[in-house]
Design goal:
single chain, mainly beta, Jelly Rolls, four-stranded antiparallel sheet, 2 helices, globular
Length: 173
């Protein structure tokens, strides 16, 4: 009975924080985050109660907050397999059209960079003060290791005013 209660509590926490689930496609693991429960992610100081795409919370980036909340987990902590590709989707709302901000994939091992890739919002988010879905894919080298740390975040390198919400990450195998 204690084991059942423990499993139920852990399951509820994972679900409330977006959690991880097998995708509808074969060989896909999805991780979602609507920013209503930030306990599951790192660098959460930019998550505030504000105009959100869904719910009440979004990640606010500006001249003070250059980096968004960050997905952070080892490859082995996601699956026993090495992913071939990572797909990221999120919603962006900017105070100006074509913001020069990017979704970043940063993979490192013991603090040393293994892979760093960034895809800009500039050509996708064309309208100001409107929620726009942004999608990006990153192909991964087969040389990654289970102990490699995956970080995914938004880098607001021009320090513009923008909001991020409803982040979804898919690992394809």
């Amino acid at each position: 009975m204690k084991k059942f209660i423990f499993i139920s509590i852990i399951s509820a926490l994972l679900i409330s924080c977006g959690g991880e689930k097998k995708g509808n496609k074969a060989n896909v693991i999805s991780v979602g985050q609507d920013l209503e429960c930030v306990d599951c992610w790192a660098n959460t100081s930019s998550v505030v109660k504000t105009m959100a795409h869904s719910g009440e919370f979004a990640c606010k980036l500006d001249s003070v907050a250059e980096y968004s909340t960050t997905f952070q987990k080892t490859i082995g902590g996601i699956s026993s397999k090495i992913p071939k590709k990572i797909n990221v989707s999120l919603w962006v709302n900017s105070t100006q059209p074509s913001p020069d901000a990017s979704i970043v994939l940063d993979i490192n091992n013991n603090g040393k960079s293994v892979l760093w890739l960034a895809n800009s919002f500039k050509d996708v988010v064309k309208n100001e003060k409107e929620w726009t879905e942004f999608k990006s894919s990153f192909k991964l080298p087969p040389t990654l290791k289970p102990e490699d740390l995956v970080k995914i975040y938004v880098w607001n390198n021009k320090k513009l005013n923008l909001f991020i919400d409803d982040i979804n990450i898919e690992f394809e195998y």
